[in-house]
Design brief:
By secondary structure, the chain is mainly α. It has four domains: about 180 residues, no CATH class; about 170 residues, no CATH class; about 55 residues, no CATH class; about 170 residues, no CATH class. The chain is built from 29 helices and six strands. The strands form three sheets. A two-stranded antiparallel ribbon has the order 1-2. The protein has a two-stranded antiparallel sheet with strand order 3-4. It has a two-stranded antiparallel sheet with strand order 5-6. It is globular and about 80 Å long.
Length: about 675
């Protein structure tokens, strides 16, 4: 069969380490399947050119050229540039997830130097808070959590280190190809590096159904391997690979054999906690735990052959005894290869581990390889490194496109492909295919670094557009979803941004970085719903309660009411895009919620101090802090009337925190 028009570089093939010892290939791929747009080699599109002076002035870089060409084709025109106050607030939330201080805004508004905008952008990109904001995006994608989920929702010792690894990687502007390599194979790259050990914790982030008597039963191992495989498809390749677990994919060119061949790269991968304590500390811990561990061992032995109420009673005794163990010593949360415990990988009838069919070896997605490309029947020394090398090869048509699209999505609220985790037939087609390939090419050519991409986007006229347009009504009729980017799409703050912004404007934000995650006070009604209420231990140091939201415990079975109300994702699965719903509990949370009211009290105290008792000055300071601008005449008059009426300043502060101008980025 003649090979389709897909470029396969030498390194792309070498990454598969194809050897003579193979089995017969399972499944083949039609020319039509191989021609799906996302499987084809990235193009080098011509950048549209413009002759009219207004067009030339608007086009600041190729992004604008692609966008403007499409707008003109559809009879649309871009909106005017937003004012400086709007732009710096937009940039601050985009890059740091925090509102700009009034002093920052004034400095930018009054800075008429040619590089004023560049100074703002560079300052935010070099801010430690940049890594925290952009880490949250990635943590959504890889469904980061520090607990197992399901009934027990057991806490994972040291899982917070993976979150710190992502924050650090973002702040270092680690190349994305290296970032991917480390998460898939950090322990293989350098087993002595603590950070690389932690990076491989990605493979343990999925939910885990535990059994009180035996954690290594075949069903648990099957689910662990499923989670490891599915996240590769969703996070790195942007495809619904998981749909091929039980049968050939119903829409895309992924056979069930593809799924299990990908899974085979993880056949020897097992969880591994590397102790950070000294030998003396470990001996002391074992001495304290000796009696309890003996009791647990005896109870587990008694569970054999039991069922029903008798088994349940013994399981409860095991859990109670486990609670008596000393606090766990610190560890590095990661994985390692244990080839003595390599799991034989078979195709499974309907995905059931009890119904194995043909055994398969490791191989990448067949639709991206030459027809009949063989699989590896035995695992290489570093199997996940081989998989990662294939994923980050510059010729892989998916990887760079997927990440370039994610970056675009996190800027504009909608990707060029509106389904960031699905570049298949059931996903959306790219609204600007030429622009997507151009961005992906720039990403790779720039060393796979995010910060140059930020600067590219932030320098474009497309990103700087205002929400309002002189042809708003007509444009809404043609493109109500703003797919073609004829104006800025106003967005509501995400849950973490909302909480962090309240802390910032109230003067309570604790900018301490890293370390173990924080549990903040919650209603007792919520903790009683946990398998064990003792799982929620509130931090004794109250200043820890004011940390940024990225440092709050990511517990699957308990999300803070405010975070849940404002669409914080369910960490059971990869979150490709945040929803932005509008419903009554949000208003209730912002007016009656304990957190909102505590922030209003702190905000009022700040306003009282900085406003020096002057109603007009208090109103101006409140608007500056919360919205990035001064109140207009109508807002100022209403605020002064309220403040002069003798009503509590706290009520005024709470009202300001409920303004749309606070909750939305324009």
């Amino acid at each position: 069969m003649k090979s389709p028009p897909i470029a396969i570089s030498l390194t792309f093939l070498m990454a598969m380490q194809l050897i003579a010892e193979t089995t017969a290939p399972l499944g083949s791929y039609t020319a039509a399947e191989r021609r799906h747009w996302s499987f084809l080699k990235r193009q080098t599109p011509a950048i549209p050119a413009f002759s009219a002076a207004p067009d030339k002035a608007w086009v600041k870089n190729p992004i604008d050229a692609f966008v403007l060409a499409r707008l003109q084709k559809e009879g649309l025109q871009p909106a005017p540039e937003a004012d400086r106050r709007t732009l710096i607030r937009r940039a601050s939330f985009t890059l740091r997830g925090l509102p700009p201080a009034p002093e920052e805004i004034r400095a930018f508004v009054n800075d008429r130097s040619a590089n004023a905008w560049d100074k703002v952008v560079d300052g935010y990109l070099n801010s430690p808070q940049y890594g925290e904001r952009w880490a949250q995006h990635w943590l959504d994608v890889v469904r980061f959590s520090e607990t197992d989920g399901f009934e027990y929702d057991t806490h994972r010792n040291g899982a917070w280190r993976f979150r710190d690894y992502v924050v650090r990687s973002m702040n270092e502007d680690k190349p994305y190809d290296r970032f991917v390599m480390e998460q898939l194979a950090g322990d293989e790259l350098d087993g002595k590096s603590e950070w690389l050990r932690v990076s491989s914790g990605l493979q343990r982030l999925g939910p885990l159904r535990k059994n009180a008597g035996n954690q290594e039963v075949a069903s648990s191992r099957s689910e662990v391997l499923t989670e490891m495989t599915n996240i590769v498809g969703a996070a790195f390749l942007g495809v619904t690979l998981g749909c091929a677990r039980c049968h050939d994919h119903k829409f895309d060119a992924f056979r069930q054999s593809d799924y299990y061949r990908m899974q085979a790269y993880f056949a020897a991968t097992h969880e591994k906690d590397v102790a950070l304590s000294t030998e003396a500390e470990q001996i002391a811990w074992k001495e304290k735990a000796k009696a309890t561990e003996a009791e647990i061992k005896k109870l587990k032995a008694a569970m054999k052959g039991k069922d029903g109420e008798e088994l349940a009673a013994l399981e409860k005794q095991v859990e109670d005894a486990t609670d008596k163990l000393p606090a766990p010593l610190p560890v590095l949360f990661g994985v390692e290869n244990d080839f003595q415990r390599t799991t034989p990988i078979h195709l499974l009838e309907r995905g059931e581990y009890t119904r194995p069919k043909e055994r398969v070896g490791a191989r990448a997605l067949g639709v991206l390889l030459p027809e009949g490309a063989p699989e590896r029947a035995t695992l290489p020394e570093n199997p996940r490194t081989k998989l990662a090398e294939w994923i980050v090869d510059a010729e892989n048509p998916l990887t760079a496109r997927v990440m370039a699209n994610r970056i675009w999505h996190w800027y504009f609220g909608r990707g060029i492909v509106a389904t960031p985790n699905d570049f298949g037939k059931m996903g959306m087609k790219p609204a600007h295919p030429g622009l997507l390939d151009w961005l992906a090419n720039q990403f790779v050519a720039g060393g796979w670094k995010l910060k140059p991409m930020h600067k590219l986007l932030l320098s474009s006229s497309t990103w700087k557009q205002s929400y309002d347009s002189p042809v708003f009504a007509a444009a809404m009729e043609k493109d109500p979803e703003n797919k073609l980017l004829w104006h800025w799409g106003r967005r509501r703050l995400e849950a973490e941004e909302m909480r962090d912004a309240m802390l910032a404007v109230s003067g309570r934000l604790n900018l301490k970085m890293g370390g173990p995650s924080v549990m903040v006070p919650v209603d007792k009604e919520l903790t009683t719903l946990l398998y064990k209420p003792s799982q929620w231990a509130v931090a004794a140091d109250t200043t820890e309660h004011d940390r940024r939201s990225v440092y709050l415990i990511a517990k699957r079975n308990l999300r803070l009411p405010m975070m849940e109300a404002f669409d914080a994702p369910d960490t059971q699965i990869s979150c490709a895009r945040r929803e932005s719903s509008t419903h009554a509990p949000q208003a209730l949370e912002l007016t009656n919620g304990e957190f909102a009211n505590s922030m209003a009290t702190a905000f009022a105290a700040r306003l009282s101090k900085e406003g020096a008792g002057d109603a007009k000055r208090i109103a101006e300071r409140a608007w500056e802090l919360a919205t990035g601008r001064l109140p207009n005449a109508k807002e100022s008059a209403a605020a002064v009337r309220f403040l002069s009426s003798g009503k509590p300043l706290r009520e005024f502060a709470l009202a300001v925190l409920n303004l749309n101008a606070f909750a939305y980025v324009e």
